């Protein structure tokens, strides 16, 4: 159907209802699977690691030993000033009750501290195996028995307790994360649209897209074994609401314009989709491609976030290009009440903030460009102040009992480790491996454990505290000295997480940059404009990470930085930042094709798209900011860096730097495409230059 044609009344009525019926049928099919997504979610450190990691191999062999995987706990009894005889009797009774109620691998032995203030009981069980629900039940049963008594504190720590506490935080993300995200988006949409009804439409459609994405993500897990973690499923929800609302803002803005020019809502929506649909498709495709590059990561959690995030973006795109238009057409013009765009009316003329900002950038583009680049560079220096790698016990916003136990043990037993390092060695070399481990200067003790399938387990206690430099050195030395053996355990897993993240940054970052650059070259038919956009988003990422370095330790008191923060924030900021760049550059190219001079095209593009980009940026930043209210520091840090980066990109880079660079480059911004050449005056009359001031 041509642009000037109108649809038949029957089609105007039938198509929206048919789309609505298809979505109802789709949700009926997907619904049962969406509810199962949490059942396949895994958040153990070993689930995040690649199969080639030493600690992963050790864990897999442990699972095959008699009894399966071991859940290790530490009961910590403490009284300031020293434990009393009655305290020790109470501790013995509680441990005996735990032993009677649970199948432990051995009889727990009391290990008193040298100052007499603390009593440590290591205990372990093979009964839970790899079942996280059984592990949590075991940990909670122990906590129910081991309680504070008469001023003596009793806490349960160890790897099993840490895993349970982390799992509780991840399991609690679903409800609070969804409700908070919906509330934040609702408030922003009400402020943007100033309508009692319109804000509900994109919000409800985003909710439908989120439900669909959960079902598709579960299907990917069942079909291809895609890793689903609490982090990836939470980020998927953020992407659905953030990116989906961005697409809705662009579509509704264009639809409102067309309603003033076209009489019937169905025809107006067709024109709106014809006008902004390509930009929405291109931007979502770029985001999906950037996220999909995470499949090249070696870390399971990062690799799983690639397809999961891509599913979120594509489900949001599908809903916003089909369900949203159908609902808007069925509701008609009244959905915009009280600011109804009447047919044939003119929009209210208001002074445009972005026109003023663009004019200031256009008057002295080189000065604005140099100043902005210097500011971003200065902010990026803050990355030098980022705290070191985040320790497992420092990853909680509100410290649970398991972390309290680790801190108490570190003070009470300064000369020895309190968390075992697991060495898996061939049974034929078990005695030699045990002797070598005991003879190592960094090892306090080593004991032989289970054997089976040609492998033997050796439990090593380091002299250094868990995840300290001394313990890390011991793990590395054991791996170097004990050839043919695998060194695992919680601290070894954290070390492997850091090493794998470092490798992934070197591999994934170039792939993301090349992929995004190629897509932009094809879309904009230029080399300079894509390079400009990619350079801009890289600068935004560096500045946002630098701001994190300036506030994480000094202001927020964070003890470390998540090893995956650099890679994940880069992928999201590059993909999402280029998303907005496409909106701006696509409109700039349209203006240039219509014959506008380069400066006028850049300023017109900013004036016409600046409001939508600003609204979209605020929504996206706010949705990622929801992560800062979650219970794990890795989520808080990721949400903060992405939110700050989106705001920088929206209000500094897109508004000033990209615009000023485009004005300064003139037609060269489209090199080597046809737009980079001066038009032939014999074929098209030259236009007088448009003043940029």
Can you describe this structure?
- The chain is α+β, with helices and mostly antiparallel strands and 693 residues long.
- The chain contains 21 helices and 8 strands.
- It has a 4-stranded antiparallel sheet, sandwiched between helices. It has a 4-stranded antiparallel sheet with strand order 6-7-5-8, sandwiched between helices.
- A hairpin with a 2-residue loop joins strand 6 and strand 7 (455-462).
- Helix 8 (200-224) crosses helix 9 (230-261) and helix 18 (528-551) packs antiparallel against helix 21 (633-665).
- The longest helix has 35 residues, at 490-524.
- The two termini are 42 Å apart.
- The model is unreliable at 1-5 and 683-693 (pLDDT under 50).
